[in-house]
Write a structure and sequence with these properties.
4 helices
């Protein structure tokens, strides 16, 4: 028994702390004891009910008194401290440790709990491939809280990995008719145990098979003995185009082709055409989808009014479920349905003969030199001015900013669209083959050095932070008229001045 016991003076701790739960294996832990120094106060560490010096496993190691050994005990009686260092801990070190100090007694223990990785590998790994995905499943492993799952294309080095908590996982985005490898390893917070090989499986995604046509039945087969050619989804339609019957009309016709499916003998059993208005709210008129025949290449929709619409054409067969086989196109129906005015041809100017010497002095351009019908009036938002300039002459388009506008001329940008082609932004215009085009950002004047067929189309000026777009349509350049008269207007023919309020 202890005559002078005072265990309240004895304190024990560990680093890292054991209060947060199990300590991952392979780490180092230090168990420390402290007490008030005094005469004849010597420390010992107990493992359970036995001194560490007589413990059958720890005793021989501690007795070496080697700081580099897996266990090392030291004490400083002058300071009243003692430490036991355990390196590379494993589940075998799961014990209760306490301090014993002479003339004080034995304090309360701390319990070491070590977490090791799963001791077994994954089994029962199977792969169920589809056209562009694969489902992997496996059996649960004792001690595993998650699994490291990975795939790669056969013959490559890099793995695409994911950590999942369950016993199945699906990888998407694979290529059809391609060879892959997959592996799964069991793990927990302590990691993956070294020396255990992962479960592995090889698989091939569904194939785009070579098809044969039976000349007798006119049916398509993968070979002469099995009808498996249909076991693949169709391709989306190609060449999807939106056609307007009239300017900004609400009756819209779509056209497309199915050449990609025909080229590979892919079966298409039907086509669905849909139209949806962006930002539609409850109460807006519904646009019914259209179920079309497999060979259909057109569809016509009657739209309820202006707005942005998304048209989607989807091909179908027995194997298209879960596969994206749609093609989409965005189209805008504007507020106005008034077509642009027809192009005007300038009346040729007749000049009386003269014996005076010809002059080469050019007349300075003014807005009154050519009356294009604007009359100096503001152009309403959405109106399109139609202009037919002389061929091979210089033209200038100007977008004037009112004094009370909340933007500057430098905020104006221009776009150009030739027919149904994709609009070209200002930065692209400079580097394109449209023609020699310059911009003056201080006045927002766009200058076409020479009007040609390449410059025929819609020229639009857009105000930053505004939704209103003002357009000028250059129709086919005229080759008629009196060239001398045209030159007399000067080398810069002011086609139009968009003197319009770009405010709301």
């Amino acid at each position: 028994s202890c005559v002078f016991c005072n265990t309240e003076d004895l304190r024990i701790s560990s680093s890292p702390s054991l209060e947060a739960g199990p300590i991952n294996w392979k780490q180092q832990i230090t168990i420390s004891c402290t007490w008030t120094p005094g005469s004849m106060k010597f420390a010992d560490i107990f493992v359970g009910e036995e001194s560490i010096f007589t413990h059958p496993v720890y005793g021989p190691i501690v007795s070496q008194e080697d700081p580099e050994a897996r266990l090392f005990f030291s004490q400083d009686i002058a300071l009243g401290t003692a430490e036991l260092v355990i390196k590379d801990i494993t589940e075998a070190d799961n014990n209760a440790f306490s301090c014993m100090v002479s003339r004080i007694g034995r304090g309360n223990p701390v319990t070491l709990e070590v977490l090791e990785p799963p001791t077994a590998g994954v089994s029962g790994l199977t792969a169920t491939p589809d056209f562009t995905s694969v489902l992997l499943t496996w059996e649960a492993v004792d001690g595993a809280t998650n699994y490291n799952v990975a795939w790669r294309a056969s013959g490559t080095e890099d793995w695409n990995a994911a950590d999942v908590p369950g016993t199945e996982h699906t990888f998407e985005g694979l290529n059809v008719a391609s060879d892959y490898e997959a592996k799964v390893e069991a793990s927990n917070d302590a990691g993956i145990r070294e020396g255990i090989e992962p479960a592995e499986v090889s698989f091939t995604t569904k194939d785009n098979q070579t098809c044969y046509v039976d000349s007798c039945s006119n049916k398509t087969y993968a070979n002469q003995h099995s009808n498996c050619c249909n076991a693949r989804p169709p391709h989306p339609v190609g060449g999807l185009t939106v056609h307007e019957a009239a300017y900004n009309a609400t009756t819209i016709t779509l056209s497309w082709n199915i050449q990609d499916n025909t080229a590979e003998n892919r079966i298409v059993t039907g086509i669905t055409a849909t139209a949806a208005k962006e930002g539609a709210v409850e109460g807006d008129p519904a646009i019914e989808p259209q179920e079309l025949a497999a060979e259909a290449t057109t569809a016509t929709f009657q739209l309820p009014g202006p707005g942005d619409y998304i048209f989607k054409i989807t091909t179908k067969n027995d194997f298209s479920e879960g596969v994206d086989t749609s093609a989409m196109e965005l189209h805008t129906v504007k507020e106005t349905t008034t077509p642009p005015p027809p192009p005007t041809t300038p009346e040729p100017t007749t000049k009386k003969p003269t014996t005076a010497a010809p002059t080469t002095e050019a007349k300075e351009p003014t807005e009154g030199d050519i009356d294009l019908g604007t009359g100096g009036e503001n152009i309403d938002c959405g109106d399109i001015q139609s202009i037919q300039p002389f061929a091979n002459q210089q033209a200038s388009l100007k977008c004037t900013v009112p004094d009370d506008a909340n933007f500057a001329p430098s905020d104006i940008t221009w776009t150009f669209q030739a027919g149904d082609a994709t609009p070209v932004e200002q930065e692209q215009i400079i580097n394109s083959e449209i023609g020699v085009v310059t911009f003056d950002n201080t006045t927002s004047i766009l200058t076409i050095k020479s009007v040609t067929a390449d410059t025929v189309g819609f020229w639009k000026c857009n105000a930053a932070s505004e939704y209103c777009t003002f357009s000028v349509e250059l129709t086919g350049a005229s080759v008629g008229g009196n060239a001398g008269t045209t030159l007399a207007y000067s080398g810069t023919v002011l086609l139009v001045a968009l003197i319009a309020s770009l405010l709301h």
